[in-house]
Design a protein that fits this description.
heterodimer, A: mainly beta, 7-stranded mixed sheet, 4-stranded antiparallel sheet, 11 strands, globular, B: mainly beta, 6-stranded mixed sheet, 5-stranded antiparallel sheet
Chain lengths: 112, 111
Amino acid sequence: DTAVSQTPKYLVTQMGNDKSIKCEQNLGHDTMYWYKQDSKKFLKIMFSYNNKELIINETVPNRFSPKSPDKAHLNLHINSLELGDSAVYFCASSQVVNTEAFFGQGTRLTVV
Amino acid sequence: KQEVTQIPAALSVPEGENLVLNCSFTDSAIYNLQWFRQDPGKGLTSLLLIQSSQREQTSGRLNASLDKSSGRSTLYIAASQPGDSATYLCAASGGSYIPTFGRGTSLIVHP
């Protein structure tokens, strides 16, 4: 069983479109994250959700909105996509303190 | 704000060498430090997690150490193999519990 799963794995879309990436974890973790990995492979935190509540938003444009229907899911919605949004987006989860973070396989988003 | 630095950025070695990858962090008030491996086009695989109260962790040919007072962690890879070729990332989790990543060390082990 995959611990953290993301769909889709690849997403190609045109500028201006709205898209969503889904993430689910079956580990019973309380905290989920979204990271963006840029072209230089640097992973930057975008959002963190603890028990369905947003606990941090690292200056991400408000075109990005995380939605957590329950603590096992954290979906990422992106409105009005721009070329600069092209990147690999990773979902992850952990228990809050002193436990391993587990990552999904990533979603490669290409905006054309 | 936590900042994590990894040195070297890239490393190319012949098979069989013992390697040390370095990770430093600016805020020593961390809860844990985690080492990951990322293969090209793939996700992150957790290698080792060191709690703030621990000094080291070992898994097979990998050994990670943690020195909170100096803000450093090292990943030691013994008897490197071509299959070890990947990018190695360290992430420090501090007060916000959110893992903050370094930019990684890209490792190539050639036969």
